[in-house]
Amino acid sequence: MVFPVTHRMISIVDYGVGNLQSVEKALAYTGAETQLISSPEEISAAEKLVLPGVGAFGDAMHILEERNMVPVLREYAASGKPLLGVCLGMQLLFESSEEDPGVRGLEIFKGTVKRFPADLPLKVPHMGWNTLKVSDQSRVLAGLGAEPHVYFVHSYFVEPADNAVVAATTEYGSPFAAAVEQENVAGVQFHPEKSQAVGLQILKNFAQI
Q1: Is 193 designated active site?
Q2: Mean pLDDT of 101-116
Q3: Which of 60, 75, 118, 182 has a CA 20 to 30 Å removed from the CA of 69?
Q4: What is the 8-class DSSP label of residue 111?
């Protein structure tokens, strides 16, 4: 699969809790130019931004706060420039998480992050392939075909205050938001870098916005 080269650099935020190499390699495969950045000044100067992340909500927010990245990430989201949160990076876009009560998220989207219920008759964490039901309005998830499959690894999921921002849903015991999108900001709970052709199409879409 060959994708056209994009002429805008995509910056990936390196704050110590992301699977950076796999995201970087997948973006490069689509023809995108990428760079790792790790300072507030570099975030402000970025043309397009990916916020990855694996691990705990509270730990990630504490690191972002220690590195003075929280205000600049909020300003970046408000600037109109494209921003994509991946996995934990998507959860950080919200106000709070049941994983770490009392810790404020980036508050770019209203809503919270919830844990799969204890009585869920399925294994937690949710690991594996699931089918997406995609909104027709999504730019980041455009052109994925019927019933696209993507790869998930997570114990928590977002619950937006406004369902209008939900770009895709999937089901694990019950339906939940697998992706969100509003204007220039998007987030995916799954791992596009592990989702084969569908994931590469998503990253290509983001690169071309």
Answers
A1: yes
A2: 97
A3: 182
A4: E
Residues 11-17, mean pLDDT to the nearest whole number: 94
Other Cβ atoms within 10 Å of 75 Cβ, number: 12
Rounded Cα distance, 30 and 104, in Å:
34
Supply the angle between the helices 20-29 and 196-208 in degrees, to the nearest 10.
Answer: 80
User: What is the per-residue pLDDT across 194-203, written as a single tens digit (0 to 9) for each?
Assistant: 999 999 999 9
Of 87, 149, 154, 181, which residue is the catalytic one?
87
- Sort 8 into a burial class: Cβ within 10 Å, 0-12 / 13-18 / 19+: middle
> pLDDT digits over 63-92, tens only?
999 999 999 999 999 999 999 999 999 999
Smallest Cα–Cα separation from 124: which of 91, 152, 103, 145?
152
As a whole number of Å, the end-to-end CA separation of the chain is 20
8 falls in which pLDDT band (50, 70, 90)? confident
What are the beta bridge partners of residue 112? Answer: 96, 159
**Could you tell me if 118 and 151 are in contact, meaning their C-beta atoms sit under 8 angstroms apart?**
no
Give the separation between CA 209 and CA 202, rounded to whole angstroms.
11
For residue 17, what pLDDT is reported? 85
Residue 87 appears among annotated catalytic residues:
yes
Burial class (CB in 10 A: 0-12, 13-18, 19+), 101: exposed
Q: Give the pTM.
A: 0.94
Question: What angle is formed at CA 72 by the lines to CA 192 and CA 95, rounded to 5 degrees?
Answer: 65
